[in-house]
Amino acid sequence: MNEEEIRASIEAGDTALGLELGSTNIKAVLVTKDFRTVASGSHGWENTLKDGIWTYSLDEVWEGIQRCYQNLAAEVQTRYGIELRKIGAIGVSAMMHGYLAFDREGAQLAEFRTWRNNITAAAADELTKAFDFNIPQRWSIAHLYQAIMNGEESVRDIGFLTTLAGYVHWELTGEKVLGIDDASGMFPIDPATGTYDEARLAIFDKLELVEKQPWKLKDILPAVKVAGEQAGRLTDYGAKMLDVSWKLEPGSLMAPPEGDAGTGMVSTNAVRKCTGNISVGTSAFSMNVLEQPLKAVHQDIDIVMTPDGAPVAMVHTNNCTSDLNAWMGIFADVAKAVGATVTTAELYGRLLGTVKAARKDAGGLVNYSCLSGENITRIESGRPLFVRTPHSAMNLGNFLLAQLYGAFAPLRIGMDILTGEEQVESAGMIAQGGLFKTPEIAQQALADFLGMPITIMETADAGGPWGMALLAVYAAEPEDSRKPLADFLDQEVFRGVKSTTCTPTAAGREGADRFIKAYRSGLPAEIAAAAIADVDE
């Protein structure tokens, strides 16, 4: 489309908006029917550790959404000289899991407990045994059952339990629904029915502590929808919540709200069986769309769903790039102290460039990038830790490679279960995340570390908001001509998209194996570091 055609599409409302609430940024993109991003907005935010709970207030949620939308609308005005008044379809996605509980009148009952909290071990263990299905600590059902086990009085008053995306969608539409990927991080899904597993719902309701509650679980969970289904319309109240200037008209078609894992699968074209993707950021996760069920229940492997309802083996790590970003902040301070002027992009590019000359095992340096607890490595409290021996080769390239390896290490441990014990085959993974903006460095490190080809597409920077916008476009497709989601992505969205692939090298693989061996052997030191008091506690 040329600029005049884009302007006409925006004025006609022939567009889709994808909004995603991530851990450190809220982002929105406006796309036209050719899937091109024509405007975007963002707002940075951070979770708060409040009384031992990682949380965001709902006031922060709406302040961030509104500022993000204002930025996007301002870009439309600046670039195209028109006001944004109509949007054809909208989709909301957000970080998955967690605990958002409301009473029957819609009042919030407890602080929002995000995926980052490692406070539900007892509940997760008991439910995993009862269901014969892995229930991670961050899942909504683990948070609910832990609250019951803790005797929290507000549990009896729950009328609705949802995720962050489900909550925002509810406010915008009045509909208590959830996309199947996000729902699969609340409670196990039965692939045959496309909704919550009835047998496990019954098991939960019959647990001694649950039987005493005045509600049944199915009645307080959001309804489940798959990609392509419609999930309501933007109400007048919702339009005013989104756009504080009150210029946005109600009536936009709403796609099912989804989790960031689902939008990651869509934005990397990895929803077809035997495909896979990796998303890295504050947290990291790999997704392998399964051809067959896994042979065993694994504590470190989640079974979730693609947005169109296919089972996925998910390795989720609570930590990834936060510690690296903190070190980059130190290096930025150093640059400022010596009078150097450097942009963030230049800083990452130049410093990560030194990794090319690093030893493939990071010179014996080891980094534990645990800003928060990490389930896969059984780390209960976040204590980032850098370790070296007297004989380690301490230089900048080795240090930064240790940072990359340390960020990827929990993911590698989980992936080893899939490729080793379960023999899940993968010809390679498609990766996305801001870390890959520096060409090839992190991509090659990840390929060496996981021992498989890693592909980056030219759309990698688009990320989850764009993936959610694609799902909004897909929901607006005429039902009688709508293709399966995998075909829609292959044939319409990603046709002709360019990509680059890094394959593991023998030396890189050998060095990465030495690093992970040292990393595993040092985990007791990382666990012991939890004894260091947190200044915020």
From TrEMBL:
Domain Carbohydrate kinase FGGY C-terminal: 277-476
Keyword Cell inner membrane (UniProt): no
Span of domain Carbohydrate kinase FGGY N-terminal: 16-242
Segments forming a coiled coil: none
Keywords (A to Z) from UniProt: Kinase, Transferase
Source species, domain of life: Bacteria
GO molecular function list: kinase activity
Keyword Glycoprotein recorded: no
BP GO terms, sorted: carbohydrate metabolic process
Similarity remark: Belongs to the FGGY kinase family.
PANTHER family: SUGAR KINASE (PTHR43095), XYLULOSE KINASE (PTHR43095:SF5)
Name of protein: ATPase
Native species: Selenomonas caprae
